[in-house]
Amino acid sequence: MSTQIPAQTQARATAGRPSFGRTVKNYVALTKPRVMELLLVVTVPAMILAQGGLPNLWLVLATLIGGAMSAGSAGAFNCYIDRDMDRKMKRTENRPLVTGEISDRNALIFSWVMGSLSVVWLALTTNLLAAALSAGAIFFYVVIYTIVLKRHSEQNIVWGGIAGCFPVLIGWAAVTGTLDWPAWVLFLVIFLWTPAHYWPLSMKYRNDYAAAGVPMLGVVRGRVTVGLQVILYTWATVAASLLLIPVAEMGWTYTVASLVFGGYFIVQAHRLYAHAIRGEAGKPMQVFHTANIYLSVISLVIAVDALLPF
């Protein structure tokens, strides 16, 4: 069965070879830079907490480079595997494999090269545990989430989201060569945060996911069910973040910030649910952006708290 190619794809395909700058931009787009940025945000605080201060700056840079290649490889593999679905969704219609500005073959080669380099780089510049975790993150995102779960389970983002938890483990392992309890608490926070963050997005783009046949919770369940699940995972996320206080001996800076911003996150989740039970669409993207702000703030105060002398 043939897939109808959008008119803009045909137009670009006949427009001639793209410039070098445009080509670079397209390859960067394959790596899903916004997702990569979010993953790297949590890596540095994990390293600072593991060190109990500022780690060696070269080690931080090396870990970020390896982490960026790892996340970029996973994102590129995802774009390659999901290119048929991306052609059916408005939010992904400008991805380079949809427009034809990068060939399927080149995208696949790029994915393998980036993934292989990330593992080798981390093995040479950090340690074997960090390198193994990088390989595990790529495998989990590409195989478990993209291939196995995404098209077949409404819980896809819950278990597939484990891939997004690996950066804190990679950062911790790069510093200590081990995985201690605080690293696993950070892992748990991101694991619980992921559905609370992503399901509001699936509510916003429900029609897109439905058109592509992706059984996101926002597609297969009503707003009330999704809203309730967002509440439950938001409360669980905030509770997990508080576990870091005794486990990692966090100070008042982290304690106050996690309570204040966690409370705000919970309020936004309850507002979304309140709209849902009244039969209203509400503002799911407000919850989505709040979740991003929450994780960024928590990451920042983890680093600040670890650097303070009290």
UniProtKB/TrEMBL annotation:
NCBIfam families: cyoE_ctaB, PRK04375.1-2. HAMAP family: CyoE_CtaB (MF_00154). It is a multi-pass membrane protein. Belongs to the UbiA prenyltransferase family. Protoheme IX farnesyltransferase subfamily. It is found in: Cell membrane. Keywords: Cell membrane, Heme biosynthesis, Membrane, Transferase, Transmembrane, Transmembrane helix. Signal peptide: none annotated. The gene is ctaB. It comes from Leucobacter alluvii. It is an enzyme of class 2 (transferase). Pfam families: UbiA (PF01040). Converts heme B (protoheme IX) to heme O by substitution of the vinyl group on carbon 2 of heme B porphyrin ring with a hydroxyethyl farnesyl side group. It catalyses: heme b + (2E,6E)-farnesyl diphosphate + H2O = Fe(II)-heme o + diphosphate. It comes from the Bacteria. The chain crosses the membrane at residues 35-52, 58-81, 107-124, 130-149, 156-175, 181-199, 226-245, 251-267, 287-308. Pathway: Porphyrin-containing compound metabolism; heme O biosynthesis; heme O from protoheme: step 1/1. The lineage of its organism: Bacteria, Bacillati, Actinomycetota, Actinomycetes, Micrococcales. Its EC number is 2.5.1.141. Carbon 2 of the heme B porphyrin ring is defined according to the Fischer nomenclature. Its main location: membrane. This is Protoheme IX farnesyltransferase. InterPro entries: Protohaem_IX_farnesylTrfase, UbiA_prenyltransferase, UbiA_prenylTrfase_CS, UbiA_sf. PROSITE patterns: UBIA.
